[in-house]
């Protein structure tokens, strides 16, 4: 019933041929400037890949889509001038990253597949082969930092008339909410409408205080003294795999499952038992207990992003076009996660987000001014539930499916809306070493059972 088909065969070769590659530049002259990057931006120097699948539209074959998309991109590169820029290391001793807004451009790749969309497989199930639908910002032979694209786009047509829009952007450019705003603006311009929202590009709104004031302990952050600067190394404590090779596995939470988890959490404070909190608590519990390295007295820490826009004083503009998220955390002993009660685990997740006040967030930002380090947790949950990528209305319609291309080497659980044949609810893409898969699967369904009260 809840179980997704096991051992499903995922197509590995999408038979994609690259037809053309074009560099696009802002449609108007933009002022060359250096964009300040906050301490949150500094540690997010890695690429995020998303794929957006569209059904066939007789009015918009893929050639017409490219004809609309290309000038629309050139127009939005004016208000989003940083997207056409390049990263640079700021002169000085601290080696901070900045964006040189030099109008060097973004890339638009046009490709075709020999397959029909229905032959690609279950679009509800993210597949590493979907990376063939996304142009790389950094080619395999590498590039100097100052030559690397910050964003690229790929339109891949299928034999049925459907197509995929793949986007690869450096995480420094956007967080999830600002990326959704960018997509809405791109769709509006492609529809010959004005921008839906004027982006706020002032990242000094999240600058550290002078002098920095670290007013809280931050056990969720780890200092890496051996790394000269984050731009020379990805945020490995958050992204690197375990010693064993990770494989991604898809697990579905139906609306009934989510209701059952909420029932188990009903003794927690009323705001605590949100859909995200109960799902995150459930996944945290299962992943921590499935680990072959766990012991009953071992502490487990879960990390999950919290949007700062409404939490700061004064609030950030909703249109803030940068990274305005920090990692909330919750910690518990494995024995507590195993024995329950589940309501207590949910409450820990809830309190982790509640901890993210203005003063706490400023303390984290100031910590980043004094230290070189990253968030650290053994379980990381990245929620795409409220980003609304699938609700963006392009001239050719809304995406059938829109989701991240998960990297199997990143130990991050991706949580995103479900809408396919398994029904509505949530899907969780969980990276696991081979030795932990069956244990996780067993715990996942055991703790969903209606007669398990803890």
Automatic annotation (TrEMBL):
InterPro entries (alphabetical): CAT-like_dom_sf, Plant_Fungal_Acyltransferase
- One Gene Ontology molecular-function label: acyltransferase activity, transferring groups other than amino-acyl groups
Q: Which Pfam families match?
A: Transferase
Mind telling me which residue stretches traverse the membrane in this protein? none
Keywords, ordered alphabetically: Acyltransferase, Transferase
Q: Family per UniProt?
A: Belongs to the plant acyltransferase family.
The identity of this protein, by name, is Fatty alcohol:caffeoyl-CoA acyltransferase
Species of provenance: Phoenix dactylifera (Date palm)
């Amino acid at each position: 019933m809840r179980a997704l088909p096991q051992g499903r065969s995922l197509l590995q070769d999408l038979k994609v041929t690259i037809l053309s590659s074009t560099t696009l530049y802002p449609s108007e002259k933009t002022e060359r400037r250096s964009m300040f990057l906050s301490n949150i931006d500094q540690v997010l120097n890695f690429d995020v890949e998303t794929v957006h699948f569209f059904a066939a539209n007789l009015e918009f074959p893929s050639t017409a889509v490219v004809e609309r998309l290309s000038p629309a991109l050139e127009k939005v590169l004016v208000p989003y001038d940083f997207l056409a820029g390049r990263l640079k290391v700021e002169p000085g001793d601290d080696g901070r990253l900045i964006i040189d807004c030099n109008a060097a451009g973004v890339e638009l790749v046009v490709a075709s597949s020999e397959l029909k969309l229905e032959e690609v497989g279950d679009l509800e199930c993210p597949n590493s082969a979907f990376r063939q639908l996304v142009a790389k910002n950094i080619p395999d032979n590498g590039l100097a930092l100052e030559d690397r694209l910050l964003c690229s786009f790929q339109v891949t047509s299928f034999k049925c008339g459907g197509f995929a829009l793949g986007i690869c952007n450096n995480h420094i450019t956007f967080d999830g909410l600002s990326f959704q705003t960018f997509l809405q603006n791109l769709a509006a311009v492609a529809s010959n409408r004005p921008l839906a929202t004027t982006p706020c590009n002032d990242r000094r709104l999240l600058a550290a205080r002078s002098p920095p004031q670290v007013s809280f302990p931050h056990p969720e952050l780890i200092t890496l003294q051996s790394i000269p600067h984050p731009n020379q190394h990805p945020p490995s404590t958050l992204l690197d795999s375990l010693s064993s090779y990770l494989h991604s596995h898809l697990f579905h939470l139906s609306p009934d499952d989510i209701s059952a988890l909420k029932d188990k959490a009903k003794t927690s404070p009323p705001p605590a038992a949100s859909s995200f909190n109960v799902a995150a608590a459930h996944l945290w519990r299962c992943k921590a207990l499935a680990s072959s390295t766990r012991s009953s007295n071992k502490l487990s820490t879960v990390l999950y992003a919290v949007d700062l826009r409404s939490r700061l004083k004064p609030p950030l503009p909703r249109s803030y076009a940068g990274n305005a998220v920090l990692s909330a955390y919750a910690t518990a002993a494995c024995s507590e996660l195993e024995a329950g009660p589940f309501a207590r685990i949910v409450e820990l997740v809830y309190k982790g987000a509640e901890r993210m006040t203005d003063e706490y967030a400023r303390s984290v930002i100031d910590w980043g001014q004094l230290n070189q380090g990253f968030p650290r947790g053994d379980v990381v949950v990245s929620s795409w539930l409220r980003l609304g990528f699938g609700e963006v209305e392009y001239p050719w319609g809304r995406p059938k499916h829109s989701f991240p291309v998960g990297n199997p080497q990143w130990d991050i659980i991706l949580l995103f809306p479900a809408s396919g044949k398994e029904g509505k609810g949530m899907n969780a893409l969980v990276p696991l070493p081979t030795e932990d898969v069956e244990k996780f699967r067993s715990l996942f369904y055991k703790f969903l059972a209606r007669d398990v009260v803890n």
